[in-house]
Design goal:
Length: about 575
């Protein structure tokens, strides 16, 4: 029981291609699905439409297994029995299967595509409704259109540019076809003034053109240092740059290497991708051995531990950068315990509950009661004693009638002068053992009332204020210099991480203590800055698609240092590196 399957295809030239296969089995399936023995790739055919079986008497049984059925010699049916010696034609969509008997006893199944309902498709029918007879050939048409494109979109704009007067303000004819897209919204005003950026025809935009408007932009680092730090490419890269320089392209390190335009009106000019930073910073120590910067290529996998800029001593203006791996201690000149203030069962919480309505506290002290964000929610305002502390830590040291006298905070000399000028006796009689008040003008509020207690001098008050439990010594460290009492200067750090940028606004859903372990800190010297591992719970590198926030270098760092740069660095005019000077 053998089927001989012949599949006939027609080439573009009209030549028939015949593929023949012997199938030694008693039945075959027909359908669009590829697993059928007779595969008919036609959408008009069901995936499994019919089965052909060979009986012992040589007859062929065709049975539909789908819902569409088939045609037998042009008649629609769902089952049929065919004598292979007589032959028949089955129809499935656009395919026809001719059944016939072979001399060797095999049953031949010849499959071909029906090309025309009226008969074989001939060459004359192919051109019956075609325009090929009245139009030029494809090659001639292609060359003609190519010439028209060159004239309309190259020759005409070039001729218009070369022949217009130098003072003319109108645009070049046809130059809009050269634009790859609209300018960004920031540059949209230059949409009809191409020469504002493209100063020289057929040359890329130079850095000098960019700096004509962006005057405040300055170098990422000193130009000679940038040339050394930049990773040099291989021979191929140098060859490409040599060709680019011949055509006036600036770089490497030019503005256009990172900032691309003509991307669309509402498409922002995005910062450069991570690879542009990593090309230098991944192996920075190889080219700049003296650098203090660690190698960095990916925030999630190749980034050094954070470094914080802290004061080297109380009141010192000198700061140093220390890795958080070293668990640095800060010397701010204050004595303060976050744990004491945040303890919900402690004395600070009870005091906050007592004065909550007056100061806006919510029963217990919270971070926001002292640390107040700036208007943009990016950072926090400096701590002010009168606003943030005096609600609990009163500066009152004396009372005269209904009036309270307070120490002057922030001016130590003024505070000391005020206390030393205080030389008084108690305002009421104490220690005399009297059981009833004196009458008339000798009463406690009378003109001749006297206090016969021991007077308290201003020097004693000063020492009490500066003692460890005094109104000043409770938070400040007393000091004795040049024969005078004082306190050690306070140095509150405004920004610890000065080489990167952090914005608290996107992190408002997080609690303060999820990053800053303030509830565990009992000393002011504890540096409560989170390490990189804490940030990596959400932020990973640019290519990490499993991270909650895939983060590029530009999310925290700026190529052009500005307000987020180290405080000691001032913006400087942009200098041309050696690579840019070569092309001038």
């Amino acid at each position: 029981m053998t089927f001989r399957l012949r599949q006939i295809d027609t080439a573009a030239s009209g030549r028939e291609i015949v593929r023949e296969t012997l199938l030694d089995r008693s039945s075959l399936t027909i359908g669009r699905a590829a697993e059928n023995e007779i595969h008919l790739p036609d959408l008009a055919v069901e995936p499994h439409q019919a089965r052909i079986a060979l009986r012992d008497d040589g007859r062929i049984v065709v049975q539909a297994i789908g819902t569409l059925g088939f045609t037998l010699n042009g008649a629609k049916t769902t089952s049929a029995t065919v004598d292979s010696r007589t032959g028949a034609e089955l129809g499935f969509g656009t395919y026809r299967i001719a059944i016939s008997a072979e001399p060797d006893g095999a049953v031949a199944l010849t499959v071909r595509v029906r090309t025309s309902a009226g008969g074989p498709w001939d060459e004359a029918d192919k051109h019956k409704f075609s325009l090929a007879a009245v139009l030029p050939g494809k090659r001639r048409t292609g060359w003609t259109l190519a010439a028209l494109i060159l004239v309309a979109f190259l020759a005409v704009p070039v001729f218009s540019h070369l022949t217009r007067p130098a003072e003319a303000q109108h645009s070049v004819i046809g130059d809009r076809s050269w634009s790859t897209g609209q300018l960004n919204l920031a540059h949209h005003g230059l949409e009809d003034s191409c020469e504002s950026c493209h100063v020289k025809a057929f040359e890329p935009v130079s850095d000098d053109t960019c700096l004509g408007c962006h005057k405040a932009i300055h170098d990422h680092a000193d130009a000679p240092q940038l040339d050394v730090a930049r990773a040099s490419g291989g021979l191929g890269d140098r060859a490409l740059w040599a060709v680019a320089h011949r055509f006036g392209k600036p770089g490497p390190g030019a503005c256009s290497d990172c900032h691309t335009e003509h991307e669309g009106l509402h498409v922002p000019i995005k910062p450069a991708g991570q690879k542009f930073c990593a090309s230098c910073h991944a192996t920075m120590d190889r080219r700049l051995p003296a650098t203090s910067l660690g190698n960095a290529a990916d925030f999630g996998t190749a980034h050094p531990q954070f470094t914080a800029r802290i004061s080297t001593g109380a009141g010192s203006v000198k700061t140093v950068r220390v890795s958080l791996d070293d668990n640095p201690k800060e010397r701010s000149g204050l004595s303060f315990s976050h744990r004491l203030h945040l303890d919900p069962l402690g004395g600070a919480a009870r005091m906050a509950g007592n004065i909550g309505a007056e100061r806006g506290y919510e029963g217990v002290l919270r971070c926001k009661d002292c640390h107040r964000p700036t208007e943009d929610k990016a950072r926090f305002r400096p701590i002010e004693m009168e606003r943030d502390c005096e609600g609990c830590h009163s500066l009152v040291y004396d009372r005269v009638g209904p009036t309270f006298r307070s120490l002057t905070h922030g001016n130590v000399a003024q505070m000391i002068a005020g206390l030393r000028a205080t030389d008084r006796s108690p305002s009421r009689i104490t220690g005399l053992g009297l059981t009833r008040p004196r009458p008339g003008r000798y009463s406690g509020t009378g003109r001749y009332h006297a206090n016969f207690a021991v007077p308290v001098s201003g020097e004693v008050l000063l020492r009490r204020a500066l003692s460890p439990g005094g109104v000043c010594g409770e938070c400040h460290t007393p000091d004795f210099r040049n024969g005078n009492w004082t306190v050690k200067p306070v140095a509150l750090t405004e920004r610890y991480m000065t080489t990167g940028w952090f914005d608290h606004a996107p992190h408002l859903r997080e609690t303060c203590t999820s990053c800053h372990k303030a509830g565990q800190s009992s000393k002011a010297s504890d540096l409560l800055m989170p390490k990189i591992a804490q940030c990596r719970t959400c932020h990973m590198g640019e290519d990490n698609h499993k991270a909650d926030v895939p983060s590029t270098c530009a999310m925290c760092h700026s190529y052009h240092p500005g307000d987020m740069a180290p405080f000691s660095r001032r913006p400087a005019p942009l200098q041309k590196s050696a690579s840019l000077q070569k092309i001038e």
